[in-house]
């Protein structure tokens, strides 16, 4: 009787992203240990202002008892769809997880949250347009 040893790696082809490979193996998108992927860029980067704001928001939610702890935040991040997990940055994942948690617990209504996001996005677009206009008008002063 001959027995065969299964291959050590059961990873799908490396042409898919690590998150896609994880899902194909029945894992969640964040569970990419041992899978093929791009090299990690270890370079430091400056933290953007909006990232500090997300960090502060999460900590405020903890302090006010609106979220329990980082385990709740992590659970939300680990529950993201593969598409969201791949396209969102680190702090965007924090923001999405926090939003979902606050909607689930009834702190904010999903429609109200969407309206506020739309309003803020519009204000940001207007701010960007005003900065561009001011910058363009200064170009003629040189």
The CATH architecture of the domain at 48-108 can be named as Orthogonal Bundle
Oligomeric state of the chains?
Answer: single chain
**Average pLDDT score:** 81
And the CATH topology of the domain at 48-108? Cyclin A, domain 1
Sheet having the most strands: none
The CATH first-level class of the domain at 48-108 comes to Mainly Alpha
Number of strands: 0
Beginning-to-end CA distance, first to last residue: 87 Å
Q: Unreliable runs, pLDDT <50, ≥5 residues?
A: none
Order of helices and strands: HHHHHH
Helix/strand structural class: mainly alpha
User: How would you name the CATH homologous superfamily of the domain at 48-108?
Assistant: Nitrile hydratase, beta subunit
Indicate the proportion of strand residues.
under 5%
Explained architecture:
The protein is mainly α. Among the domains are: 61 residues, Cyclin A, domain 1, CATH 1.10.472; 34 residues. The protein is built from six helices and no strands. Helix 2 packs parallel to helix 5. It is globular. The model has no long low-confidence stretch (mean pLDDT 81).
What are the main properties of this structure?
142 residues, mainly alpha, Cyclin A, domain 1, 6 helices, globular
């Amino acid at each position: 009787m001959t027995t065969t040893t299964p291959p050590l790696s059961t990873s799908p082809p490396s042409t898919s992203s690590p998150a896609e490979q994880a899902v194909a193996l029945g894992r969640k998108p964040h569970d990419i240990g041992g899978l093929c992927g791009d090299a990690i860029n270890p370079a430091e980067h400056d933290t953007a202002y909006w990232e500090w704001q997300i960090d502060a928001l999460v900590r405020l939610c903890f302090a006010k008892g609106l979220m329990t702890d980082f385990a709740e935040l992590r659970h939300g991040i680990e529950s993201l769809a593969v598409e969201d997990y791949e396209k969102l940055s680190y702090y965007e994942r924090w923001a999405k997880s926090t939003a979902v948690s606050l909607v689930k617990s009834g702190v904010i209504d999903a429609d109200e949250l969407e309206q506020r996001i739309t309003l803020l996005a519009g204000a940001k677009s207007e701010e960007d347009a005003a900065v561009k206009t001011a910058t363009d008008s200064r170009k003629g002063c040189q």
